[in-house]
């Protein structure tokens, strides 16, 4: 057999409350030795379930109902093996290793990491315990865990998320499998760590001759690492081709839609994102025709009458599941392009300052012991200063622990800063008492990250959106109130008819719209967005980004937009603030920052982000940034970045640099530019 | 307005559908309802005065006259059983009510004010939990005396710590949710925040705990009465009846076994209903909240 | 724990002051002369301020002096000396028996989730935790003593006095006392196991190709034991409470029967001593639990180290 792994027509169901949810309808793929393939899809596309099905790791009420999985060297369909029997166990871990998404919960908290690695070796290799231990330590060294011998007996919770994921890799590779499945393995990690890990994974795979399956929703990652890509939608593979082909000339309408919906680092600044409208079809009630039909921009009426399309070859290794011919799609695309000449709404930035922050500092006390004595301080935020003009969007980027959420919460006065000023229309609100803040609360609003936990589950949509109107007495009577609520619903493109529903009856994207409507209710002048789209799917993200741009142009509000996705921030922001460990390291206009980043951290950050463009990716060499993000408790002396910085000088370890203006408002805090 | 009611109604009907989806819950609810009806109708349907002694018909076996026989003092067992159910239910409901009100108030105060208030309430709470509930109840009985009202209040007080702890944890976890922060940032006053956003989201675990506690409270009352420190004679209580039955176990075993069986049936039914309520309100199962 | 014990001791001390009427009358009856009343009143130190009285009482307690029983007119310590060990012995023995059996049944039920054996165990456990303990006692007594005549229906003998007798007398009380614990621990183990089985790390364990045995007994059970161990203190406290009923049913001369008698005759010093001692035992169990906890859960060690 030519292929190492060949998967045909996987079909997996879940039975919940009497309903049969068809999570995977028809997933097929193959993998050659030493190859890296990517499987991409949004949440609910069934990509993870497919991988679990291959290893028969689906728990009841789930069930693999069909499919054929062939692994080189095994004559039988491995799905026919008993899921707890010896044959299946030899495949798991021994032939196919798997890494899961959540580094925090995927390792057993009561067993040492060394034991967990050695266990795999003992299960699959004939060796003594001492040999297994020796091999486990070698594996820990291979995944570059410092001080491996000593940390063999450490428990998972003594490691950071990135380190834990390294241990997961060590476990998965310990018994020398032929295939490694990385199921969203780096999704929960920060960008610089993600880049480190993926680079290491690629190297390990090459040196050990392991074929890798990368399962992810991130188009950038597959563009950078995969040789071939499978695109999944609603439980089926809809398109597969070599990476360049998928990104260069995608054929399936869904693949095209997906690529049009994501912002990229090399986009033109005014590129309009085209979201995919509508929702995923209900997996418990599937239509007999193409699953993408309802959302498809290319559809013909005949599509609904034909059965679900099968993958058909249209080029070398290029297969598409669509009834339309290549010519038909090309014609339709030209048509669509003509119609899509919508420009980003024009917005106006006024010179007037909306909010200014000076030397904002917040330290959280660390308490310990019986009497809760303060034993130290976490420097969550150190002397951050910036200003936002009326109608402007300031993007704030940084990895975990950089203090971006603390910053938002300080400006919102969830808590008071220790030092510094927050000048709102010239008035310092940093130390104002809560009862004097009511008018500020009306003018500054916030949108939260998690659309599920930020809406009170017991209130109707109307009372969530309209609460501020009541609190600030903005509507003289009931009629005006009703009118204003309807207006707000329409502003965020929600049907006012839905106003009496409770949050759980809305989808994630709709909930986030409700959150935005709530923020808009009292006509604020500044809205702070704390990672507003990171919990949403790519196609929905584009909808929200477009909505935010439209609202800003229409209402002239200022935005402070916090995110970790650099491409999104680039798309939406006018100026960007880069933060690292509680300090502002660089502030610049959007164009400046992406074209000519000055701070070594910004440079590393930008090079760590994979772009959804394989041609560009080949020219980029990810900057090797070693080390972990230090815990805020153990800040390095001097410049916070000094211990990871490739250009660190002696003075960097002693003195923390100040923000220096390099011209045209491009500020950077780095000793490299101190001489100017 | 009509539409809003519609949604409320839908929530309630969904709750009942989830709860009565299992047959066993329906059966247990029926049993409890029957016992409640019998308890209310006790004065009407009981054939004899439960406290009336009859020295001519002592320790009789079941007969047409006395369907379940008589006890050592000639009292009609069936009548005593019927009246005993009143005691059990009244004590159970009042005790749970007392515990819930005091406990959740204390828990809320501890969570909301924090600091010294929290420390004082929670330490006292911890102290109370260190004394076995029965021993605590007995100590209180030794001071305040028995009787239906006292026992109800005492059993209520001895279960307060559980409620306080649960409510404190619940309030603390709700306060940390984003929607509460969001509501605060809208300019809500603390009072409005507490009553409109925090409390309504703390109610379901409270309701679950209450329904699950009725049964165990009834069990405790029976226990105290059995020991002779609960409901005092001549009031009929199932616990007392078991204790009286124990004395004549040799001659008339049914006297002790029947009331015990009644207690078991009532408590099992109540607990099953409690589990049903929990399953129906459990946000994990519904995946909504 | 020290603070907790202090709060308890103060509460216990306050029992006397809460007493309606007067300790003197409670002690000597209502028919005493004013003169005797005043004398005893002074003798008991009731004319001193509250905190001073508490201090004196507490000092006495620490020296092992719980005062004099109103009812028996002898030191409370002497009354308790023979009784308390019996109660503690019963409670600890029942806990030690209930623990492994409960865990065993719980694991069996969880592993065979949804099968017949799970239903049987779950239903039995549910029913057992609803049955009044005293009634189980009477039921057992009716069958094994009255009907079959196999076991003695009352009494308690220490093993070193007469081992055979000890065992025979112990069987029913221990079954009766531990049944509730077995049911409770089984239910808890089952739900805790089912919770663990759903965790990501168990999926990781399966994905490594481990045998079902290692997945269940190494990866799942070890984690499931954490909540069970953490409630060991509470269990022991239940057992102490339960032994009061069992002692009453089987006429065992433990602390329980003394407490019942003290309550009916408002013998407050005895009540105080009993409450304080049970609380002390529970506190000790809590401390022991905390120590055990460190053994099962490596996370605890970490937080304490930091």
Written account of the structure:
The complex is a heterotrimer of chains A (676), B (289) and C (306). With 676 residues, chain A is an alpha/beta fold. Chain A has 21 helices and 23 strands. Chain B is an all-alpha fold. Chain B contains 13 helices and no strands. Chain B has helices at 2-19, 23-45, 77-113, 115-130, 133-144, 148-158, 160-175, 178-185, 190-198, 203-227, 238-247, 254-281, 283-286. Chain B is elongated. Chain C has two domains: 2-75, no CATH class; 84-253, MetI-like (MetI-like fold). In chain C, 78% of the residues lie in helices and 0% in strands. Chain C has helices at 2-18, 23-28, 34-43, 50-62, 76-111, 116-130, 133-147, 163-197, 200-207, 212-230, 232-249, 255-264, 268-296, 298-305. In chain C, helix 5 packs across helix 8, helix 5 (76-111) packs across helix 11 (232-249) and helix 9 runs antiparallel to helix 10 (212-230). At the B-C interface, helix 4, helix 5, helix 10, helix 11 and helix 12 of B face helix 1, helix 6, helix 7, helix 11 and helix 12 of C.
Short summary:
With 676 residues, chain A is an alpha/beta fold. Helix content of chain A is 31%, strand content 23%.
What secondary-structure arrangement, pairings included, does this model have?
The complex is a heterotrimer of chains A (676), B (289) and C (306).
Chain A: E1 5-16, E2 19-31, E3 36-40, H1 47-54, E4 62-71, H2 86-91, E5 96-99, H3 113-124, H4 129-142, H5 148-151, H6 161-173, E6 179-183, H7 191-208, E7 211-216, H8 219-225, E8 228-233, E9 236-242, H9 243-248, H10 253-261, E10 312-315, E11 318-320, H11 326-339, E12 353-368, E13 373-389, E14 393-397, H12 404-411, E15 419-424, E16 427-428, H13 438-443, E17 444-447, H14 461-471, H15 478-491, H16 508-520, E18 526-530, H17 538-555, E19 558-563, H18 566-572, E20 575-580, E21 583-589, H19 590-595, H20 600-608, H21 614-619, E22 660-661, E23 667-668
Parallel strand pairs in A: 3-7, 3-8, 5-6, 6-7, 14-19, 14-20, 17-18, 18-19
Antiparallel strand pairs in A: 1-2, 1-4, 8-9, 9-11, 10-11, 12-13, 12-15, 15-16, 20-21, 21-23, 22-23
Helix pairs in contact in A: 3-4, 3-6, 4-6, 6-7, 14-15, 14-16
Chain B: H1 2-19, H2 23-45, H3 77-113, H4 115-130, H5 133-144, H6 148-158, H7 160-175, H8 178-185, H9 190-198, H10 203-227, H11 238-247, H12 254-281, H13 283-286
Helix pairs in contact in B: 1-12, 2-3, 2-12, 3-4, 3-6, 3-7, 3-10, 4-7, 5-6, 8-9, 10-11, 10-12, 11-12
Chain C: H1 2-18, H2 23-28, H3 34-43, H4 50-62, H5 76-111, H6 116-130, H7 133-147, H8 163-197, H9 200-207, H10 212-230, H11 232-249, H12 255-264, H13 268-296, H14 298-305
